[in-house]
Structure formats: structure tokens, C-alpha cells
């Protein structure tokens, strides 16, 4: 049989979708995993990186990749204006020749470039009327001004004002909305801690279909990868007794403090991003306040 030359683009970091864009720090390098899907050793491949409708930028990588083996390539840093972009990444010219299979060469990644940055320590108590606060973002896949994270003016732990999701009135079971910090620069620190206050009352102690949830994700490598570091729902998340009325967290006794060690995710020379994700179950209101990231 004839020899086959095929550079298979297996995966890309970050790899955001249209519905769940990946928040990515400006000027952070991409990573690609390629596989030698041919029948002879792969000695080189060209990786093309295109943002939106711009010109693709090629980089040639010398390789010594055995048949069926994978390798990770660090691509050039991606830089652009703050906001949503589409990346088109594809392989060309394996071994300096034509690729015999083109249908496994390309991956699209939908990203949101984050340009706002803050050094540690970083704090936010949502006391300002501006929401989201400067540098923060919300991600609402369903669109609409009301069915997303907002600021509540009567609740709060240390002062009036808290980030709030109206699960009591929003009937979009299973939808996931995110509140996202600016890029956080840990500098030379290796020990980083996230603290925040949370308040929630479940509408039912046993019906799991009405249990809203809170998840926290962290990226320590500029948004290439995210890790789930916190997940609670229903009574586990609750800080107050079962409440079938709209829950309001206007007293300190209705809140609970949470502490998460982010040290395992710190990457030298890279910035961090923290995402708070509400999972809607048409249950009851969720609040977070007094977010602090310290080294």
C-alpha cells in the first residue's frame, strides 16, 4: 500500500464553544496536541493560527514523531482586543508535503480575550453601583438583561451590595451563567487562596429538581485550562433554612465563608482567572460577596 502522510490535530487549549466561550488572558500562548496519523515518521509540521478574518500566521515545528504517537506543541501567544474572537487552528505541510487527510486538520476555538488585570491581593465587595465591577465579566449563553448575574442592593455580608442570581424567578433549568474575575497576577507567589461569602436557601429539602448550584473554576495558566475547585447544590449549598419565598441575604448570620486553596493551580509567569458559575433549577436566590484572592 502507498505511504500515508497525515498530521491529525487532536486538541487545542483553550477550546471554547459558541455557547461556552473560553476566557483567555491576552498574550498567552496556545497549546495544540497533534498525532502522527500517517504510516511513516512525522519529521515536521506547520501550524497555522488565524484570529477572526485575519491572516493565518504559520509556525514550522521540527519533529521526530513515531506513527500513532502524540505530542504537545506550544504555539505563539494570541493577542487581540478585549472581547469575543474566533480562532481557527490547522495543520499543514506534514513532512513538507501534502496532507493526505484534510478532515482532521482543523479546530475552531471560541474565546473571550481578557485584557483587564489586577495584582494580588485582590478584593471585591460589590458595594459600588457599577456591575459587573471594573474588569469583571458575565457570561450569559441565553442572552437577555434579566436572566444573568446582577447586583442586589439590599443584601450583603460586610456592606450593602452583593452579586446575585435570581433563581427564584428565572425558569431556565440547567442553564449555567458565569461571573468572571479579571486576570489576576500572583507575581512570584506560589501559595494563593480564594475566600468568598455565599448565601442561599433551598426551596425544598428533598426535591433535587429544585436545587440550584454554585461551581467555582480556576485557571492558573492564563485561561488555557480550567479546573473545578468547588461545587455545592441544594441543602449542601444552603446557608439558611428551607424557604419557599424569595430568599434575601440581608443579615450576616445568613452567610457562610468559603476558603479554597488555589496553590495547586499556580503556574509560574501566568495569570489566573476565577469563574463563579450558577446552575439554575428555578429554585431560590443565590448570592456571593466579599471575594478575596490573596497570596
Overall shape: it is elongated
Largest sheet: 6 strands, antiparallel
* Proportion in β-strands: over 45%
* Mean pLDDT over all positions: 96
Helical run tally? 1
Helical residue percent band: under 10%
Number of strands: 21
Return the string of H and E elements.
Answer: EEEEEEEEEEEEEEEEEEHEEE
Structural class: mainly beta
For the termini, the CA-CA separation is 60 Å
Task: Specify Rg, calculated over alpha carbons.
Answer: 22 Å
Task: Flag low-confidence runs.
Answer: none
Features of the shown structure:
295 residues; mainly beta; 1 helix; 1% helix
Summarize the structure.
This protein is mostly beta strands and 295 residues long. The protein has one helix spanning 234-237; strands at 7-13, 22-25, 28-36, 42-51, 57-65, 70-78, 83-92, 106-114, 117-119, 122-124, 137-139, 150-152, 162-165, 176-180, 183-185, 193-200, 213-219, 227-233, 256-261, 273-279, 286-294. The N and C termini lie far apart (60 Å).
Question: What report would you give on this structure?
Answer:
- By secondary structure, the protein is mostly beta strands.
- Helix content is 1%, strand content 46%.
- The chain contains one helix and 21 strands.
- It has one helix at residues 234-237; strands at residues 7-13, 22-25, 28-36, 42-51, 57-65, 70-78, 83-92, 106-114, 117-119, 122-124, 137-139, 150-152, 162-165, 176-180, 183-185, 193-200, 213-219, 227-233, 256-261, 273-279, 286-294.
- The strands form five sheets. Strands 10, 12, 13, 16, 19 and 21 form a six-stranded antiparallel β-sheet that branches. It has a five-stranded mixed β-sheet with strand order 2-8-7-4-5, with no helix packed on it.
- Strand 4 (42-51) and strand 5 form a beta hairpin.
- The radius of gyration is 22 Å and the shape is elongated.
- The mean pLDDT is 96.
Amino acid at each position: 500500500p502507498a505511504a500515508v502522510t497525515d498530521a491529525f490535530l487532536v486538541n487545542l487549549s483553550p477550546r471554547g464553544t459558541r455557547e461556552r466561550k473560553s476566557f483567555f488572558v491576552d498574550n498567552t500562548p496556545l497549546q495544540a496536541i497533534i498525532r502522527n496519523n500517517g504510516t511513516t515518521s512525522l519529521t515536521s509540521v506547520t501550524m497555522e493560527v488565524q484570529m477572526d478574518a485575519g491572516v493565518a500566521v504559520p509556525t514550522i515545528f521540527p519533529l521526530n514523531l513515531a506513527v500513532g504517537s502524540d505530542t504537545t506543541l506550544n504555539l505563539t501567544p494570541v493577542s487581540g482586543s478585549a472581547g469575543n474572537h474566533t480562532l481557527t487552528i490547522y495543520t499543514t505541510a506534514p513532512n513538507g508535503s501534502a496532507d493526505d487527510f484534510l478532515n482532521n486538520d482543523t479546530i475552531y476555538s471560541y474565546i473571550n480575550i481578557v485584557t483587564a488585570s489586577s495584582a494580588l491581593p485582590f478584593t471585591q465587595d460589590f458595594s459600588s453601583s457599577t456591575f459587573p465591577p471594573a474588569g469583571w465579566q458575565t457570561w450569559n449563553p441565553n442572552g437577555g438583561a434579566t436572566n444573568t448575574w446582577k447586583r442586589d442592593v439590599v443584601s450583603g455580608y460586610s456592606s450593602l451590595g452583593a452579586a446575585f442570581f435570581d433563581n427564584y424567578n428565572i425558569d431556565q433549568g440547567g442553564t449555567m451563567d458565569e461571573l468572571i474575575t479579571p486576570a489576576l497576577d500572583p507575581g512570584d507567589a506560589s501559595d494563593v487562596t480564594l475566600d468568598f461569602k455565599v448565601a442561599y436557601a433551598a426551596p425544598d429539602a428533598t426535591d433535587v429538581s429544585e436545587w440550584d448550584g454554585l461551581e467555582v473554576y480556576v485557571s492558573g495558566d492564563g485561561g488555557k485550562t480550567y479546573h473545578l475547585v468547588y461545587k455545592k447544590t441544594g441543602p449542601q449549598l444552603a446557608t439558611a433554612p428551607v424557604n419557599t419565598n424569595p430568599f434575601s441575604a440581608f443579615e450576616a448570620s445568613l452567610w457562610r465563608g468559603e476558603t479554597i486553596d488555589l496553590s495547586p493551580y499556580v503556574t509560574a509567569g501566568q495569570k489566573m482567572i476565577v469563574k463563579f458559575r450558577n446552575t439554575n433549577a428555578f429554585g431560590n436566590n443565590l448570592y456571593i460577596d466579599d471575594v478575596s484572592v490573596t497570596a
